[in-house]
Amino acid sequence: MTPEALAASAAFGLLGGTLAGLFGIGGGAILVPFLYALMDGSWSGIALPAGASSVVAHATSVAVILPASLSALWGYQRTGGVPWPIVLRMGAAAALFAALASRLAPELPEAALRGGFTLFLVAAGLRMLLDRRSAASRAAEGERRGDALLLVGGAAAGALSSLLGVGGGMLAIPFLVYGVRIDVRSLAAASMGVVSAAALAGALGYGLARPSVPLPEGTVGYIFLPAALALAPGAVIGARIGVRLNRRLDADRLRRLFAMLLLLVAARLAWGVIATL
Fold this sequence. Notes:
Blueprint: H1 3-23, H2 28-40, H3 53-78, H4 84-104, H5 110-130, H6 135-138, H7 147-164, H8 169-180, H9 187-208, E1 219-220, E2 223-224, H10 225-246, H11 251-275
Antiparallel strand pairs: 1-2
């Protein structure tokens, strides 16, 4: 990797980690588009076989999300805010389906992976932007903790996490809010627990995989370690910063700003997908 790529990785790792800790997501919405640019651009010094850049980007993102999410989870645990009964049940399902999805992703066409990620950003951005209710009012009806409900939500979040290289928090959060009706004070902490479980299983699945095409030196399975190691320190530090900000800032206003960012990133990625057709 070039010095420019290393510097950019440190900055985007910090940004992705901060957003992960702040919103209870995995940070993949920021990390994956950056990794697309890193894997595709000659400026980074990375050369990948045709059709391999998307799965490598998703796998590397999951590997970075793991230490970032664990850092954020530890930060929330220190404040006593992790609802472990919910996290353990959802996390078990998330881990299982993340492992399964990590085996499926390399078999999918690159356009399908990028197109699916773009649609994910659009759906997440629109949902966050159009939801006018406050975070507190969404949880006002009381929690529901049925095992079947938690397992379904965890399975969906885990599968999405590995396939698209995100943490799964974008799916876990609306499920926790509208399905489980979790106390808003525990929302980000619960999401980070699910994200951590999914990222652990997904990273193991991608790391133990045997690629069908030769990948650059330093790649473990489908995880490009030089990029993961460059992103991870900033992501871990940023996650702790995000946890602190979560306790201080207006989450609803930040949610809308983040939604607009997701839609802008989705528009840019959609243009790239269309240009390749």
